[in-house]
Amino acid sequence: MSRSFASLLVSLANGLSLFRVCGAPVLVYLIWRSPDSDSYRYAAFWLVACMQACDMVDGALARRGSRKLAVRNYLGEMIDPVADKLYLGAAFVTLGLTGQLPGWIVALVVARDVAIIAGWTTVYRRFGVRLLPNLVGKLTDGSLALLAGMALLRINPGILRTLTHLVAALAITSGWLYGRMAQRAMVAAAYRRLRILAATRRRARVGSDKRSIGATR
């Protein structure tokens, strides 16, 4: 695979992430109209499925292209999680407002996403460390998309209730794991800073001692 083709894969991956960002308002409109129209309801379902498929494809493309280029796709690392949080959060809020999902699961999903984004931002701004999505987080996003799709298809209420509780448990678990990841990253970054500061002071002290010895001679 040539470097130009690898660069094309990375650009395509970033484009798919941007598609999810731009498609979020369309998804909100379709879900908002879905209670009164089967056409809008099925259109919303297929858009959710398409966006989730794009999430799976863009990750694979970005990894393959980045390995060939031997550089990190910083733009994709930033856009991809934001796109997931944006379109899934918008979908859940709209599903809650239209009465298609209970309010407590909507509040849980929104609170989790806000906490994750706040944690990512804090760790990056204070320590310059980028927190990347983990496997449990990706599984959670996939389960959220599944729940949104099943709500739009209006499956059996008992099955939807069970699925909702399973997704809630996974969302809580992934949120806790992201919190642990952020904590470990902050501790590691603070420890590195202390080591650098100690080494700098040690070099300064050695230099001062050498100058003192030279002056006495």
Topology, element by element:
Layout: H1 3-33, H2 38-69, H3 74-97, H4 103-127, H5 135-153, H6 157-216
Keywords:
single chain, 217 residues, mainly alpha, Four Helix Bundle (Hemerythrin (Met), subunit A)
Describe the structure.
With 217 residues, the chain is mainly α. The protein has one domain: Four Helix Bundle (Hemerythrin (Met), subunit A), CATH 1.20.120. 88% of the residues lie in helices and 0% in strands. The chain contains six helices and no strands. It has helices spanning 3-33, 38-69, 74-97, 103-127, 135-153, 157-216. Helix 1 (3-33) runs antiparallel to helix 2 and helix 3 (74-97) runs antiparallel to helix 4. The protein is elongated, with a radius of gyration of 23 Å. The N and C termini lie far apart (65 Å). 29% of the residues are buried. The mean pLDDT is 82.
Structural class: mainly alpha
CATH third-tier fold name: Four Helix Bundle (Hemerythrin (Met), subunit A)
- Record field, number of beta strands: 0
Which bin fits the share of residues in helices? over 70%
Characterize the overall form.
elongated
**What is the name of the CATH superfamily?**
CDP-alcohol phosphotransferase transmembrane (TM) domain
* Separate helix tally: 6
How many individual domains? 1
CATH architecture: Up-down Bundle
